[in-house]
Design goal:
Elements lengths: L9 E6 L2 H11 L4 E7 L17 H12 L11 H4 L7 H14 L2 H13 L13 E6 L7 H10 L3 E6 L12 H11 L5
Parallel strand pairs: 1-2, 2-3, 3-4
Helix pairs in contact: 2-5
Length: about 190
């Protein structure tokens, strides 16, 4: 896609599970990724014997079922509060979040995407990421353990960790600190 856009190298911002794609791109095509900003990302989502962060496999599967299930709307979990507690009480935000979630994929496809996102493991590729990387995490993030951010910062060769105030996993809600740090990093050219 970068070739079609006539872009030599891009600065990549990823949030949550899109970090798996961004990290894979940066590892496979270091010439195409100038810098990375990873907000609430992880190298692997599920807890494993050699990785103490995240949910166990059973809890991750139950979360997928509870949030993607085609049950009647009144029986579904309200995911807007999971991703943006600061905006969860805003009716317009909740309607928007639900609408975009339901337009993205049908229940079967959505469940498959969530299973891939919660079972993938890109830890072996981290050493191949040469781009300067900013790993961002809100201090009180409600649904992703800050241990994921520490792990990424410790295992990416050129990473800087910034833990900022806030609770929301969604990058564009809550306090401005996360976006402020991302912009400053990118304006500095990904410099550490």
């Amino acid at each position: 896609m970068l070739t079609e856009l006539d872009v030599d190298a891009a600065d990549v911002l990823a949030c949550f599970d899109t970090g798996l794609v961004a990290l894979t791109l940066a590892a496979r095509r270091p010439d195409r990724v100038r810098s990375l900003v990873l907000a609430h990302c992880y190298a692997t989502y599920a807890r494993r014997p050699d990785y103490p962060y995240g949910l166990d496999a059973g809890a991750a599967a139950q979360l997928i079922h509870d949030t993607v299930s085609p049950r009647p709307a009144q029986e579904r979990i309200e995911t807007a509060f999971q991703v943006a507690a600061s905006a969860g009480h805003d009716d317009a935000f909740r309607r928007w979040w639900t609408r975009i979630g339901q337009r993205g994929a049908g229940p079967r496809t959505a469940a498959t995407i969530r299973r891939i996102a919660t079972t993938s493991d890109v830890r072996p590729r981290l050493r191949d990421v040469t781009a300067p990387t900013l790993v961002l995490h809100r201090r009180s993030c409600l649904n992703l353990d800050v241990g994921h951010a520490h792990y990424l910062a410790e295992h990416l060769p050129h990473a800087e960790l910034a833990v900022v105030p806030g609770t929301d996993p969604l990058w564009f809600t809550d306090t401005p600190h996360l976006l402020d740090r991302a912009v400053a990093f990118l304006e500095a050219g990904g410099a550490r």
